[in-house]
């Protein structure tokens, strides 16, 4: 595999610094920078490792960077490391880290859903559910409540729930006293809402922050 550089990219070393030698990985929150270095040193000479932390609490976000001396070493790490690390080439430093982290979360979550998605059918139910799973005990509706201990960003939450077809609106609210996240989600059909709750209740977004998803009364007959 050869990695080409644009003629407009400046010096070769600049391109390596920005695009070819830094990888971005998903790691356990217990990892230290030394743990990260120990796991990835087998693929080449590491210039530095860094772990992304919450600016407020100082806790690890479960994400990190590994910078190698050579592009070939970074490429080898991406190809050979365990798939659970979700290793990719990092974006250049001139791109917002928050934007890059959000894209990374969204893309990986999209892959997770594609890998485990239950197939949609032409009927209002999803054919992948077992019969026992369709006998839902709680009243169902097209509207969901989503609660998180961290505040939501409207665009990010919308993108997350829009992975399930039929999203009509996403209304994010914030409690000024607790700074927790609260949102109301509505789908065009109860089937989509059931599926969203089934897949996203307990989902960690961002990693380490579990979402609580429950049905909200939408004024319609739940037996329908």
UniProtKB/TrEMBL annotation:
<keyword id="KW-0677">Repeat</keyword>
<dbReference type="InterPro" id="IPR034207">
    <property type="entry name" value="RBM45_RRM3"/>
</dbReference>
<dbReference type="GO" id="GO:0003723">
    <property type="term" value="F:RNA binding"/>
</dbReference>
<dbReference type="InterPro" id="IPR034206">
    <property type="entry name" value="RBM45_RRM2"/>
</dbReference>
<dbReference type="InterPro" id="IPR000504">
    <property type="entry name" value="RRM_dom"/>
</dbReference>
<dbReference type="InterPro" id="IPR035979">
    <property type="entry name" value="RBD_domain_sf"/>
</dbReference>
<keyword id="KW-0694">RNA-binding</keyword>
<protein>
    <submittedName>
        <fullName>RBM45 protein</fullName>
    </submittedName>
</protein>
<dbReference type="InterPro" id="IPR012677">
    <property type="entry name" value="Nucleotide-bd_a/b_plait_sf"/>
</dbReference>
<feature type="domain" description="RRM">
    <location>
        <begin position="21"/>
        <end position="95"/>
    </location>
</feature>
<dbReference type="Pfam" id="PF00076">
    <property type="entry name" value="RRM_1"/>
</dbReference>
